[in-house]
Design goal:
single chain, alpha/beta, Rossmann fold, Phosphorylase Kinase, domain 1, 2 domains, seven-stranded mixed β-sheet, six-stranded antiparallel β-sheet, about 20% strand, methyltransferase activity, transferase, SAM-dependent_MTases_sf, methyltransferase
């Protein structure tokens, strides 16, 4: 279960002690169609994240360097595991329910120990694996209620076999969905909505692999059926994460039953398979697949945040704050800020709403008296750890990416100066 041991590349085979619901031609065609469309995501999932991200994750939850298995393939990657820790730190939940046990179970259990001591209930379709996970957690000084939940049930409106869930808590503060595998059916994880009426006010839902075609269809249906939950696809992991937040004052009602479709399911699936061959399905049926943010996106956002900061400086009615609390920022926004050079003086720190999601805009004066703004958010961009440079009128913007975080340094300075300052901030 740890990197000291060999873990298989492929997912575990289904238990032989139970039978999945019978599947017909429709389900087979859907799997073929979405397998052909989704192979880039499946290939990308072999990468579980950088070693640095894994070390940072282990440090966050107080685990040894070899406590986790080699991530990637069917296992959660570091980006998704960081999302789990972010949610636990933000909510300090009393009850977490997880569908699909494994590395996420240990990370979540440890995060709960460090943030309020809530209880984790984890369910997995493999009986022997569920038992091994529970023992593994105990060896690492963590605990959770890990149960065997065979894929023998069905949820109305969703294809494929679903977990036979017993003794599920009546109230759920954090719901983690990392199963069943897409090979059961591309839409199978949509059945997790059978638990949405148990979500407490302000609860968070985390769906792994949110950028895959099947999960995008699931997300579209959930948005229509559950308007009380705000679902957003966020970057920062190999296949994206769908994050749902239930409004604190909303009461969730069960979704209405949909009327049966006149066209038979197998004909629809056959049509999808045929359209896929022409490339039409990728854009029109699925509504477009996710791409990383273009470089212009983060540059434009950084430039806009710099303008907003300058405007705030000129207004006596707008309060600036130079207090920089990195722990609070990480806990409430999930954003890690890089260390600033010792000679820099922070003059303003503000949460900034951007098209990339919640961001942070920090204004500082360098040791040479130069005014710069650091923009930080969770995003996937074309950048890497070495800063790249762009110009916006009289401003220079250097941007780079570290793990799930994107940063940009902006100033009305020469390109060489801004690039040099950014390199100083980006240095490990």
């Amino acid at each position: 279960m740890t990197s000291r041991q060999t873990t298989p590349l492929r997912a575990l085979a289904h238990d032989s002690g139970f039978a999945l619901p019978a599947t017909g031609l429709s389900d087979m065609l859907y799997r073929l169609a979405f397998g052909a469309i989704g192979w880039p995501w499946l290939l990308y999932s072999l990468w579980g994240g950088t070693k640095a991200d894994k070390r940072r994750l282990l440090s966050r939850v107080g685990l040894e360097d070899d406590a986790l298995p080699h991530l990637g393939s069917w296992k959660a990657d570091t980006g998704f595991l960081h999302r789990i820790v972010d949610a636990v730190e933000e909510l300090q939940p009393a009850t977490v329910v997880e569908l699909g046990a494994g590395a996420s179970s240990l990370v979540c259990a440890r995060a709960l120990q460090l943030n309020g001591g809530g209880r984790l209930y984890s369910y997995d379709q493999h009986g022997a694996f569920a038992h091994s996970v529970e023992e593994w957690l105990h060896e690492e000084g963590a605990s959770a209620h890990v149960s065997h939940a065979p894929l023998g049930a069905q949820v109305p409106g969703w294809p494929g076999g679903w977990y036979r869930l017993d003794h599920v808590p009546e109230q759920i503060d954090l719901l983690i969905i990392d199963g069943p595998p897409w090979s059961v059916h591309p839409y199978v994880r949509g059945a997790a909505e059978c638990l949405f009426d148990r979500l407490s006010p302000g609860a968070i839902v985390l769906l792994d692999d949110g950028a895959r075609p099947g999960e995008r269809v699931v997300a579209s249906r959930w948005r229509k059926r559950w308007p009380q939950i705000d679902f957003q696809l966020v970057a920062g992991s190999t296949k994206g994460t769908l994050v749902g937040r239930k409004a604190s004052s909303a009461t969730i009602l069960p979704f209405p039953q949909r009327k049966p479709q006149r066209r038979s399911h197998w004909r629809r699936a056959a049509a999808m398979l045929a359209l896929m061959a022409t490339g039409w399905i990728g854009n029109d049926v699925l509504g477009g697949l996710s791409e990383p943010a273009h470089a212009s996106t983060i540059v434009d956002e950084a430039d806009a945040s710099f303008s907003a900061s300058l405007t705030r400086q000129r207004m006596a009615s707008q309060v600036e704050t130079s207090h920089l609390d990195r722990t609070e920022i990480r806990r409430t926004t999930g954003i890690d800020l890089p260390a600033l050079p010792p000679a820099w003086r922070v003059t303003d720190v503000q949460v900034y709403p951007s098209d990339l999601g919640t961001a942070l805009a920090l204004v500082a004066v360098t040791g040479d008296g130069q005014l710069v703004s650091l923009f930080a958010t969770r995003a996937e961009t074309p950048a890497e750890k070495l800063p790249l440079l762009e110009k916006r009128d009289r401003r220079s913007v250097a941007y780079w990416e570290v793990g799930p975080f994107a940063y940009a340094l902006t100033g009305e300075l020469s390109p060489d100066t801004v690039l040099s300052l950014a390199a100083e901030v980006a240095a490990p």
